[in-house]
Amino acid sequence: MVSSLLRLAATCCLLPLTTMAQEVLPLWPANAIPNNKPNITLTETSATEGGILRISNVTVPTLAVYRPAKQASPVSVLVCPGGGYSILAASHEGADIARWFTDRGITAFVLKYRLPDERTQTNPHEVPLNDAVQAMRLIRQRAGQYSIDPNQIGVMGFSAGGHLASTLATHTVQGPHAAPDAKPNFAILMYPVVTFGEKAHGGSRDKLLGTLKADPAMIELYSNEKQVSAQTPPTFLVHSMDDKAVPVENSIGFYLACLKQNVPAEMHLYPTGGHGYALRTKPGESVSGWPVALENWLKTIGTKR
């Protein structure tokens, strides 16, 4: 009964994000969400501004499950929406992407992760990664239930969600956040925040690190191009040269780091497109071809790595 109520509550909190999702899973047991301060809660809000659904004040992270009508692939993908670590762009970088995958026979999981907040969390810079690690573990644990291969689970992230995805892909294999059982088998990084150095998206960096933003060691740790190793999974990157929010050097730096470590990587750079487009590209613009390029890459990479 308690489990059913928790699932119902999670579903109600995430209705805008999970339209057509078959299931919504709480990431953590009730009253046992790591890093949450006791007896401090915020009201989760969702609003549409400029055609973008924005979710704020996430305190109960969840995983929305999107299964294809006809299972055609053992591959699955964990999707991390962007939003500068301040909000979640929950529809066009979440549910819409999940439906794109299910249309191609691929199971998708949309992560509603907690956003760093010193009011409600201890060590808030660790919280998004905590949730992503737990999400990967849950997906692997339930691989049989969803008819997916536990060795072909990828992560996809947009903008700041791309930073979270690249953190999951690099930090889980080494360093203070090592969690080999949560390492994705491939990564898809869409106009990602990668570096916290010279070409950083300052808003994402400052929101994640908070009072630690001036610590050189933290800047180094969360500059994920510096965390690429030979164990980093195959990676697909998309970026526009005219991106005014997140400089294209974020993707270029990660790609070059993969090249140096002999990690299979494919990068698509487009002259125009700006930032935050996801599937909402302009007809005739070259960036509108990125979904076809991704579909082809998914068919050819060796994900069992």
UniProtKB/TrEMBL annotation:
The UniProt record lists the keyword Hydrolase: yes
Protein name, as recorded: Putative esterase/lipase
PANTHER family according to UniProt: AB HYDROLASE SUPERFAMILY PROTEIN C4A8.06C, PEPTIDASE S9 PROLYL OLIGOPEPTIDASE CATALYTIC DOMAIN-CONTAINING PROTEIN
Source organism of the structure: Fibrella aestuarina BUZ 2
Alphabetical list of Pfam families matching this protein: BD-FAE (PF20434)
Keyword terms, alphabetized: Hydrolase, Signal
Record has Mitochondrion as a keyword: no
Alphabetical list of SUPFAM superfamilies matching this protein: alpha/beta-Hydrolases (SSF53474)
Any GO molecular function: hydrolase activity
BD-FAE-like domain residues: 64-254
Domain of life: Bacteria
Signal peptide, first to last residue: 1-21
